[in-house]
Amino acid sequence: MRVLAVIHSHDAGPELFTEVLAEDGHELVEWDIRVQGSPPQDVDAVMVFGGDQNVGEELRHPWLHEEYDALRRWVEDGTPLLGVCLGAQTLAHAFGARVQPIGTALAGFYDTELTEEGRSDPVLGVLPPRFEAFNGNGYRFDFPENATPLATGPVPQAFRIGERAWGVQFHPEIRRDHVMTWFVDAPPRPVEEIAAELDEKLPAWQVKGRALCRAFLAAARR
User: Which end of the chain is more exposed for a tag (fewer CB within 10 A), N or C?
Assistant: First the structure.
């Protein structure tokens, strides 16, 4: 398959998912929405990743309007879609849900639980019913109206719109080094604690991240 990765930042791309796509013989096409104009055409699936921008900052980042339109168009066209962190927030906003600051940003692993629908979902259902998920975010989304809630935690963690569009607040794609760059300035907790937690828990989390990526790709092929 030809998979489009929508990028908002040099330090928040497909990361681990790049390896999975290459190992499984898929073509990855990266599109930096900030600078590259219209999205590439003729893609089989779309992944939208994180960034330090936020819903509500459209005056600073006018391309956010283009992203909302593109998300609605992909969902309406039935293009398989996975939004991660900011990508999940823009997806939620595009379908009418509230996105707002949390207050104290999340940085680390947090208890997360699949809903009943999440346990039977073809993508989220590959994860255990309860698990620790890595969050790195200062904003959160509400579940869009008519979306299916798939996972909850310290904030709403995952949902599905229709049968082929998923949003996850947590980060299944992370590598240690690029995550640590997120917390260079004004970290919400001591960076030593974040680093130690990553050293302890990241290997097992990456196994789950690979499984989630492959489950999305399998759902996209169907």
Answer: C
